Hints:
By secondary structure, this protein is mainly α. 67% of the residues lie in helices and 4% in strands. The chain is globular, with a radius of gyration of 19 Å.
Amino acid sequence: xxxxxxxxxxxxxxxxxxxxxxxxxxxxxxxxxxxxxxxxxxxxxxxxxxxxxxxxxxxxxxxxxxxxxxxxxxxxxxxxxxxxxxxxxxxxxxxxxxxxxxxxxxxxxxxxxxxxxxxxxxxxxxxxxxxxxxxxxxxxxxxxxxxxxxxxxxxxxxxxxxxxxxxxxxxxxxxxxxxxxxxxxxxxxxxxxxxxxxxxxxxxxxxxxxxxxxxxxxxxxxxxxxxxxxxxxxxxxxxxxxxxxxxxxxxxxxxxxxxxxxxxxxxxxxxxxxxxxxxxx
Length: 281
């Protein structure tokens, strides 16, 4: 019996997400919005785990999710170490996203963070030509290395907030959470976006320190063949734009769509150009 091709499985799952979400909204599938969202987030998770298994390795993708989940959960629970309360920018979660950690943060929030961070982590590595053809790494710790990783962490954060330009306003309108004190970006405080950059950079730097310690690279799917399936993370990233765009229409907050499209589209185009330049040179 022929072994299933994991690349084809990822592609099929990607198509299923689109069909499930679009038909679900058109046909009004009789599921609560919470269950509906959890299902498509779990489909995203399966694709990311398969992708990470192939580009990082099984142990490394597990470590990535542990680092990303724990750091983002702590940031959310402590409101960025207390800075949220200090600046009067507190966020309160409703019941839309399901059960909560200690009654405060929905468990699915750091999971969604982790999925998105894997996509943006990989996009950043593509942009800076850090996807390699061999798993063993010869990188060494140095001030120059740390400065490079720090800068790449900031880029990862910027790619993340491009998604939050649509994510936050849409989910606020759906009642997933609220910002009682409001903010200048359609009721969202700028402080929130600064924390997104910081949190993303912390995850990126922490995980790269781990990869440095175990001497591992993130590699192309297919190794020396440099398979274009490596590029699926960008499709997932744009799929988020599509899904939240549909929600934006339903919630009548269409005004955020152009900003997110420009920001996310720019990040995707840069990644595509770099992928093709590095992969086919």
